[in-house]
Amino acid sequence: MRVLLFATCLVDTFYPDTGEATVRLLRHFGVETAFPKRQTCCGKPADSAGYPEQVKKAARHFLSTFEGTDPIVIPSGSCASMVKNHYPELFKDDPDMIRKAQGVADRTFELTQFLVHRLQADKAGLKGSGKVTYHSSCQLMRELGVRDEPIMLLKSLAGAEFVPLPNSTQCCGFGGVFMGKLPEVSMALADEKAEAIIGTGAHVVTGCDHGCLMNIADAMKRRGSSIEVKHIAQVLAEGV
Amino acid sequence: MSRSTTAIPFRVNTARAVCDASLRQAMDYSTRTFSAKRAEGTAQVPLEEWRERASAIRMQVLDNLADYVDRFSANATRAGAVVHRAKDAQIARDTVAAILKDRGIKMVVKAKSMVTEEIHLNKRLEEIGIEPVETDLGEYIVQIAGETPSHILAPAIHKSRKDIGRLFADKLGIEYTDDPEVLTKVARRVLREKFLAAKAGITGANFAIADTGSLVIFTNEGNGRMVTTLPRLHVAVLSVEKVIPSLADLSTFVRLLPRSASGQILSSYLSVITGTRKQGETTGAREIHIVLVDNGRSEIVKGEFREILKCIRCSACMNVCPVYKVIGGHAYGCTYPGPMGIVLTAVLEGMERAHPLQDATTFCGACVEVCPVKVPLSKLLRRLRERRAEQRLTPLVERLAMFGFGTVTQSPALFGLGQRMSWSVWPLLKDFSRSKLFVRLPRPARKTFKRSMS
Ligand code: SF4
User: Which ipTM value was assigned to this complex?
Assistant: First the structure.
C-alpha cells in the first residue's frame, strides 16, 4: 500500500523528528510513504482567524498537490479536520471545487485513524516503555470523532503503562491564533493541563496534534518538569 | 437601539481575571460541578433525538417568528393579559416603568430574568423611585453587591461562600458566617417581608406558548411562584424569540432545559401561567402585563446569525467553555457571557463594541457538543471572525500577515524561503518582539522535514 503524507507545516518546520517517526511507523506496517514535495500548509491559521479568501488559496494548492487515488495521512487532528470537514464547506458555492474537495476529504485520514482502521496497528504488539498519558485534542475528538483510537494504540504498547489524564477533554488553550490573541488565558489553560499531567505521574505525555503539544510543552517548561512531551507518532515508532 | 461604539476592553479584562485567584477557584469549582451534573443527567436519555426535535421546533419558530408572536399575543390577551410590544430596550424600560408608576408602586419583587438585564430595567426603575428587589438568591447577592450577573442562570457563580458571608455581614449587618444554610435563611427572611409587602412582581419567562398565550417559568427556589402569585400585579418581560408553538412542544424543552442546565430531571418549580386569576381561583395575579421585547431580534432573525435565537438560555455552553471557566462572566463586559454571549452581544450591541469578545474561542467545540437546541456555535463564532476581518476591525498587520500567509501557502518556493528565514530570525523575534508568543514557541528546526526527505 502507498500513502501520501501531509506532514503539516508545524511538523515540517518545527518537528521533523515526528515526520520521520511517521514514515518509520508506516513502513513498519508495509506502507510506502510518498511525500509530495510541493506541500505547504493546509490554511488552518487563516481559517480560525476568519480569512476564508486566504484559506482558499491554501486549499486550492493542497487539493492540486494531493491529487490521485492514494490515501492521504496527516499526523494532526486539526489539519485532518481542516481537509476533511472545512474544505468542502469552504467551496460550498462552487460545485466543481466541492467535488474535488470531497474526493480528497474522503481519502484523508488522521494518523491514528489510519493506524487503527486500516492497519490494525493496535493489534500488532508494538513495544513501548514507561508511563504514558494522553491529551485528547479538541478538533481530533469533536470534529473527527477520533476518541478511542489513540488510547487503543497506547494501551496496546507492550512494556508501557497507559495512565488516563483527568479532565483529558478540556482544551489545552492552544487554539491557533488564540494563543497570540489572549495569551494570559491560553497560558492559564495550559497551566491547568500541565498540572493535571504532572498529577498522573507519567513519564511521557503524548497527543496527536503538535499545536497542542507545543503549548503543553511550554507550560511544562515553565514548571521545570522533566516529563517528556512527544507526538504519538514518536511514542509508537520507538517500538518498531 | 442606542449603541455604544467603544470596544469592550476585553484583553485587559481577561488579563486581570486570570490573576484573580479567588475568582478562578470559584469558577473552576462551579463550572466543573455544572458540567459533571449535566453529563450525568443526560447520560441515560435519548439525548440526540430530543436535541433534534428541540432544534427543529426552534427553527420552525424562527422561520415564522412574527406569526408565532402574533398568535401568542392574541391568545395571551384573550386569557386576560395586556400585551405590550417594545421595539427596543428604551421602549421596554419605559413601558414597565409606566405600568408601575401609574399604579403608584414603590417597590417591586423580581424573579431572575436576563432580558431585564439586557434592557437595564433596574437602573431605570431606581431612577424614578421604584425599588426593584431581586428574589433569586444569586441575583439578590449580586444586587446587594452592586454587581451584574456573571452567568445567565447562576448570577453569583463568581463568588465564593466567604465572599458572600462578608457581603452579608457588610450589607445586612449580620454576624459573619459562611455557612450557606444560615446565609440562605437570612436572605429568605429579608425577602419574605418584601414578598408580603410587594404590590407588583416582575418576571421573565423561559418560554411563551403561542397556542394558549401561557408563560412558562422554571425556578429552583420557588421565588418565581411567589412573585407571580402574591402581588396583585404581574409584569412579565420576555424577548420575542421565547415563543414556542404549543404545550405539546413544551414537553421537549421540559426534558432538555433543566438537564442541560444542571442535570436535574426537572427544576423544583415549573409554572405555566395562562392569563389572570379567574373566578373561583384562589391564586394568581389579578392583572398581568406582558412586555415583548424585540430589541433588534426581528432583524437578527433575517440575518446570518439567526440561529443564535434558537438559544433557550440553558447555560451549558458557558459551563463547558474553557475560556469562560478561566475568566468568568464579568470579563466579557456585557449582559450575556460565554459562547452564546459572544454571538448574541455582536448582534445586539454591534460589531464595533463586541468584536474583541470574538477572540474568546479556541474552537474547541465543547459548546457545540452540549447545546440542547444545536446552535452551531463554532460556525457562528468563525463567521463572526470573518465578519470582523471584512469590516476591518482586525489590526492592519494581521490583515497583511494573513494576505502574506495565503500567498505563501500557494508557493512551495516562498514557503521554503519563509521556513529558512524563520529559523534565522527566530532569536531576534524572541528577544525583540513584544509578543509573548515567540517566547512560548520553540525555534524552528534547522533542517525542515521536507529537506530531510529529499
Ligand atoms: S447556546 Fe445552546 S448551550 Fe448555550 S445557553 Fe443557548 S441553548 Fe444553552
Answer: 0.95
